[in-house]
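To the structural biology subgroup,

Please find below the input and predicted structure for Plasmolipin, which we are adding to the shared reference set this quarter. The sequence is reproduced verbatim from the submission form. If anyone notices a discrepancy with their own records, reply to this email rather than editing the shared folder directly, so we keep one authoritative version.
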Amino acid sequence: GAARARSASPGSPPALDGSFLLSPLGGLMCAQAVLGLLVWSLIAATTYHLHAAYGWVMFVSLFFWILTLLFLVTYLLQLHQKFYMIPWPLVLMICNAVATVLYITAFVTCAAAVQPTSWRQWDYNRRAAASFFACVTMITYGVSTFFSFRAWKGLGSNAATSQVSDHA
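Predicted structure (tokenized):
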């Protein structure tokens, strides 16, 4: 209502939208941020630089962790309403679809590179855990792609689609 109209005006300061966290996309973004942090921090805590495969896993997990945090802040502060000319549901859907595909490759790469005969047992445990969390993160991005597609097509209402009705 009126609070949304005030926060969407160009001169007003950003307002925090706590209801976004309760939406499916908001909850999934929070889960992606936590899971992505687990993936890259577990890999970073190993001697990943000795294995080229883990460089790819680090790139994918760190890149999409940062991107997800940027989207999360954008939606939490309702900045997407200030830049209403950008098709946010479409941008979010494309980002989630690309993240899903690249996380599939990162998960497979990470799982295939885990060596159970490693002489450093803590590296094995961290890499195995990173593989598990990469799989879970991949699933959350896949589910987000589904919800983003629904938001882009206008099938259902959530915090991500509210900008369409505010500026249409």
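Summary notes: The two ends are 15 Å apart (CA to CA). Helices lie at 2-8, 24-44, 52-76, 79-82, 88-113, 121-153, 162-167.

Regards,
Lab coordination
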